[in-house]
Amino acid sequence: MTVQARSGAVDTGYEAVIGLEVHAQLLTRSKMFCVCSADYTAAAPNSHTCPVCLGLPGALPVMNRQAVEMTVRTALALNCEIPPFTKFDRKNYFYPDLPKGYQISQYDLPLSQNGHLEFMVDGQRTRCGITRVHLEEDTGTMHHAGDVLQEALSSLVDLNRCGVPLMEIVGEPDLRSADAAREYLVRLRQILTYIGVNDGNLEQGSLRCDANVSIRRVGETQLGTKVEVKNMNSFRAVHRAIAFEIERQRKVLEEGGKLVQETRGWVETRGATVSQRSKEMAHDYRYFPEPDLPPLQLDRDLVERIRVAIPELPEARAVRFSEQYGLSAYDAAVITTTRADADTYEDLVRAGASAKVAANWLTGDVAALANLHRVPLAGSGLGIAGLTELLKLVEAATINGSTAKDLLAELYLDGGDPAALVAERGLAQVGDAAELGALITEVIDANPKACDDFRSGREAALQSLVGAVMKATRGRADARLVTTLLRERLAG
Ligand SMILES: [Zn+2]
């Protein structure tokens, strides 16, 4: 498979034009227009509801200030302009999970516009425009149960999600491959979680992505017929669905067919998109200004206060980590993947661990243990303080790497005092040249064949001798020092 085919790029005279629409539930305590809790996932069906989010006649919405502020924070983090005036509109359509018969959304005067997002694709810096970030409310959810063949199919409606604050982040059609679309989404998710507005959960649908995909002849400036692809709930699904859709459209055109504007759903088990419905036009929704909510005039001081409170974003933080702590660009990117990881790293350095050693351990053994136990270091029994103590023992050469590794695994969940354990169990490294020298003499005497092999040029023989010395010290020697001493002795 060629790189081009893998990236989903079209190499047959066509180019793909992709724009993503991302919906992100906001991490507010209450819903968008009522006081119901927005934390509904574990709640009994329809228990987080009230006359407002059920759309009962006469109930009036009240705007959630926190949701507005989180949307402004997002928009600013995505380099958007915040117009001084914005309003909400009704998007009218009927669906069982939408009891009001309309969704409160934003149409012609969104909360923000004209932003952009930058990210890397195949080592190339890429920019995608952000058309707008606006605020709306989520719908309920449907659960289908029963058996189609026995005609005992039933559908259940849960309105707990109804009215949960939802941001829509509309990207410009600036993406040209499935790879670029995935990287855009990875970076967007990273920023949303960094600034604390969304939990980034694609699988559970608190972060959702639809893709508008079309293709056109290279050099053509007109856009081709657009297909909207839905139902992708992982980065992998987004990538596969877009790559599939580009290829499907190419085949239709190559065979002389005509594409229709429609919505297609990604079916993971079939690895294909299937037609769901023809695409509605904006006028089908009969948008009009929401009469129950006042338009919003955003105070400039408030916008500036939100701007200065935005935490350092992942890319800036990675650059600073490289400069301040001497990390490679790769290590800095890995350590700043999540805000929690980056905070943990800086806590370790502040507590006295060396910057380079802390980076190595965090991205290696600590990451593996955090994954294994599903507990981050900060929440583990060992914690920041315990790991710092352990790393100081390594840096001071009191213990060697493999002893530290064993102690880390042992203490990760329950914690303990690494220095006390080292003393109690006699785990301190055998670094004393006289003590090592005696052991080396014993090993040389006991292994005449390996010594001869090494002297006659077989480097590998040295490893078995190093191994024998390490074994004699119960793994407590510095393997590099042992190697050096052995070389000297065998040469002499
Ligand atoms: Zn409610």
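^ zinc ion complex. The two ends are 55 Å apart (CA to CA). Residues 31, 34, 36, 49-50, 52-53, 163 surround zinc ion (CB under 6 Å).
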